[in-house]
Amino acid sequence: MTDASAAPGRIAYLGPPGTFTEQAAVLFAGDNARSEFVPYSSITASAEAVAHSEADVAVVPFENSLAGAVGETHDLIIHQLDLYIRDELVIPIEHCLIVAPGADISDIQVIYSHPQALGQCQRYLNRRFPDARTEATLSTAQAVARAVELGDHVAAIAPRRAAQLHEAQIIEFGIEDDHRNATRFVVLDHEDHEPTGDDRSTILFSTANRPGALLRVLQHFADADINLTRIESRPARERLGTYLFLIDCDGHRTDPALANALEHMEPDLERLRIIGSYPKAPRP
Is the N-terminal amide bond of 115 cis, ω within 30° of 0? Predict the structure, then answer.
């Protein structure tokens, strides 16, 4: 992660306050007192704030260890906005059952949360509240606000920070079905990060339409002893059956090995864009 002293002033994120994305934004800013956290109503809106110079950077969810890629973020950086990844952060996801102060857990009839959070706690809900109804909200933080507003018979699933912000009561911690659950966030900016010696790069490409083209492209990484940590295909939005490939690999785009591999694979490529090189974040 970037040195806290280098963190920008205005940091856009998916709000409202109390979301996991805000937690990632706070972690990115570190001890930088001049950072201002600006919530937006969607991932797209927070990224567009950077594109339109309303914010310095945007912190957005990129992938989840259970649910996979965040499609909205991927489509933004592939098809819509000319922004780069300059940092990444990985946050363990802990969900809590939250109610209004004084509410009785035995009276809960409705449980609010973001659809992803509800899905990540499904076995817990089936076991503890088999008769309760679940209702989707735009964010986990909004779910807590709803629970506090409605009072008895209502609960929310959200991070503990949301409970603190709304002065709500946490009934149970760590209710997620899989405690290995973690989300990777990326920081979008107009440029990426300078080399640190322990970096990752995200690269977008499409291959020529001939047999073995993708194999030859991937072989260049293997020949250069470059580790691929993720590969994702996304629709090219041109015609059915055409795809773009988004990969993460070890190394910075300026490293001789990676730069040489990219140069040698060009005959098999129709499109190549480096989405960013940035410091690796530690995995929990």
Answer: no
Question: Per-10-residue mean pLDDT for the chain, 284 residues long?
Answer: 59 91 92 85 94 96 87 90 96 95 89 92 95 92 94 93 94 93 95 96 91 91 96 86 91 97 90 96 81
Radius of gyration, alpha carbons of the chain: 21
State the Cα–Cα distance between residues 100 and 154, nearest whole angstrom: 8
Q: Are 84 and 192 in contact (CB under 8 A)?
A: yes
d(CA 119, CA 111): 12
Q: Residue 7 has what pLDDT? A: 62
- Structure tokens of 5? 């002293």
Sorted by sequence, the CB contacts under 8 Å of residue 266 that are 6+ apart come out as 272
Q: What pLDDT does residue 33 have? A: 63
Beta-ladder partners of 90: 184
In angstroms, the first-to-last Cα distance of the chain is 14
Residues 190 and 276: their CA atoms lie apart, in Å, by: 10
pTM: 0.86
**Could you tell me if 27 and 55 are in contact, meaning their C-beta atoms sit under 8 angstroms apart?**
no
Handedness of CA 9, 10, 13, 19 (dihedral sign): positive
Q: Which residues of 145-167 are buried (b: 16+ CB within 10 A; e: fewer)?
A: bbbbebeeebbbbbbbbbbebbe
pLDDT of residue 3: 47
Buried b or exposed e, range 195-211, using 16+ CB within 10 angstroms:
eeeebbbbbbbbbeeee
CA distances from 193 to 56, 68, 171, 188 (A): 14, 25, 42, 11
| Domains, the chain, with CATH or none | 4-93+181-189 (3.40.190.10), 96-172 (3.40.190.10), 199-277 (3.30.70.260)
